[in-house]
Amino acid sequence: MAFKVRAESDRTILYLYDVIHDEIGVSASEFVSAVESAESPIELRINSPGGDAWAGKAMADAVAATELPVTAYADGLVASAATLPAIAADSFHMRQGSQFVIHNAWTVTVGNKHDHRSSLNQLDADSLALSRALGRLWVVRYGQRADSALPL
Q: pTM of the prediction?
């Protein structure tokens, strides 16, 4: 089950149970569409290793923007990009034995020293932007200072 939406009479359940990526897993566009079309409170169930950080950010923005209440649950692994929509929810619950994993951004580069240097510069810029976005989510949702959530 990669991404499944189940509409019930009192809630809409979104199952985010795959890699977050537009080509090989759950795409940001299908997730955002599901959030935007929900007509009842959203229950977001997550078991994902993460994936594309910017897709995770788009998912988080959709969760934060909806006027419906969103409750997220860690059903297993909530890692990397999958942490972003979890943190953006109105409430987040960890199931016993589940894991929540945040890490520094990483990438893969193939090429010569110029390609690697360029990739490193982009990674530095992306890491800073994502850390700031994560920090803002943390402050808004949990009332804590951003630097307390960003020791990486």
A: 0.84
Angle 104-27-59 (CA atoms, 0-180°, nearest 5)? 60
User: Pick from 39, 55, 47: which is nearest to 6 by CA?
Assistant: 39
Helix (H) or strand (E) segment spanning residue 57: helix 53-65
| Among 53, 47, 60, 74, residue whose Cα is nearest residue 141 | 60
**Res 144: pLDDT:** 65
Give the separation between CA 117 and CA 50, rounded to whole angstroms: 25
Rounded Cα–Cα distance for residues 50 and 99 (Å) = 12
Tally of domains in the chain:
1
What mean pLDDT is predicted for residues 40-66? 96
Domain interval for residue 82: 3-149
